[in-house]
Design a protein that fits this description.
Blueprint: E1 9-14, H1 17-28, E2 31-36, E3 42-47, E4 50-56, E5 75-78, H2 82-92, E6 96-102, E7 107-113, E8 119-125
Parallel strand pairs: 1-4, 5-8
Antiparallel strand pairs: 2-3, 3-4, 6-7, 7-8
């Protein structure tokens, strides 16, 4: 029997682990699973069984993807109701990086910008090309 991957987690380098974790909790509905070290230098968060991890890093070493390749997110979450999560994030005060739009690849999506400058995108397939 072949082993299966059962989950994944993106790891983002951040200036302040607690500040970033609390931002994702308060603005994006993630739950903080556990901080590691004292003061915290690592944290695991989750929402709906999907994970993000943050590791403390020297601010000069933090380079969001979009600074190297335009319009490239660091994390992309597929969702079942992009309009609902968009409204949720608007009402919680998350920083919307780009508004809800339909992309040429058949996905309705939007992006947020977090305290460390990362773009995090959320999308829902609306048109599957069956060619």
């Amino acid at each position: 029997m072949t082993a299966k991957i059962i989950s994944s987690a993106s790891i983002l380098l951040v200036k302040d682990v607690v500040r970033s974790a609390e931002w994702y909790r308060d603005k994006c509905g993630f739950k903080i699973d556990k901080y590691y070290s004292e003061p915290p230098s690592f944290v695991i968060l989750n929402r709906d069984g999907y994970y993000l991890m943050f590791a403390k890093c020297d601010p000069e070493k933090i380079v969001p993807n979009w600074k190297s390749v335009p319009a490239t997110s660091n994390v992309y979450f597929w969702v079942d109701d992009v309009e609902a999560i968009y409204k949720e994030f608007l009402s919680s005060g998350a920083t919307i990086d780009y508004e809800l739009c339909i992309q040429p690849y058949g996905v309705k999506e939007f992006g947020i910008n977090d305290p460390d400058g990362y773009d995090i995108a959320f999308g829902q397939v609306i048109n599957v090309n069956t060619h």
